[in-house]
Amino acid sequence: MIGPPSRLASIALIGLVFFVPTIAGETDGVILSEVHLIGTNRLTTDDLVRGLQFRVGELTTRHDLIRSCRRLKELRLFESSACAIRIKGHNAWLTVSVKDTNGLPVVFNNFVWTTRENLLARLNREIPLFMPELPASSGLTEEIARVLEQIGNEEGIKAHVRYDNSFWTERGMNVFYVEGISTPVTALQIKDENAPPPEEVLKWSQFYVKEDFSAARLTWVIRWVVRDLYQPRGYLRAAVGEPVVQFLGESEGKYPVRVILPISSGDRYVFDSVRFQGLAQDAPSLLSKWKLKPGDPYDQAYVDQFIFKEILSAPWATRSTTERSIAVPCAAIDAATKKVKLTVLVEVRKKTHSNSQLFDGGCDGIMETLTFSPSP
């Protein structure tokens, strides 16, 4: 037989919500005995308790617990969240279950007077629910901007911090920047035993020096460094570490910096041979125009330019509203000799919006996409 209502346990779920009547009403005082967080390693239970202002061991109410759980859901830090509240007598136990989501790295765009590590430590201290990777436009955005403004003001910089919620978010980053300050790059340096000569780096970097530094834009600079200064010399798998930004002090209201890229060049590859498939009648002509010789550094930029100029831009290339010519370089490496044998596959394809494999089998590319993600 079911006992009187005074003996019923109470359960409340936020996210998957249902309530069972209990002796403790919405505003009746209960002691929060324990809190458990499950479903993520990116936050600790202590972080959750501080961030949602739970008072473990102190008097609270079921209404306050439910309100805090709803706030967690509104912050959009996880794909989903649910709170289970168990009340027995005048004691309550809370279990918070979350489902992690793929967050975007938080990037501090032009905070050149301090380090990323210092900014992360400060944010973690003042915003317990902060994580180095967050969903785009999470509910913590305004709090993060507020703390960053405080940090700038402490350094004597009248900081107006903004969040870029469009351009960089679409490129996979949560970017915060200080509006209205200039951070010119006075020098771009490469730290690597196989780095290009300093004069070559200096000539290449003229476009970037004296431009305002951007931690977010540096992701594209890194790609171009590898493309322009390493791949033409046969270093196809250069690995880029986290850039070192050296703050050179304020000068007439500007904050100049020196950027050093730590790069590991990896193995050097040389060209061995090339063949063209799908172009029986044009292959001899293409071979006569090919300039890379056996033993030359394998230059991916040359390969791409040759394909565009001599194949895709050729008069015979199919051009219609329904068809197009496609050329895909497939490079095979001899692991022992580091020699590259190149096959260029050419085919006329129907135009589609699909990103599926262009050719079936046999195309094992050697190029790796290099991207930079700031370390946590």
Account of the protein in words:
By secondary structure, the protein is α/β, with parallel strands linked by helices. It has 4 domains: 8-99, membrane protein fhac (Ubiquitin-like (UB roll), Roll), CATH 3.10.20.310; 104-178, Ubiquitin-like (UB roll); 185-264, Ubiquitin-like (UB roll); 270-350, membrane protein fhac (Ubiquitin-like (UB roll), Roll), CATH 3.10.20.310. Helices cover 23% and strands 28% of the residues. The protein has 8 helices and 16 strands. The strands form 4 sheets. Strands 1-4-5-2-3 form a 5-stranded mixed β-sheet. The chain has a 4-stranded mixed β-sheet with strand order 7-6-9-8, with helices on one face. Strands 10, 11, 12 and 13 form a 4-stranded mixed β-sheet that branches. A hairpin with a 4-residue loop joins β15 and β16. α3 (116-126) packs across α4 (141-154). The chain is elongated. 26% of the residues are buried.
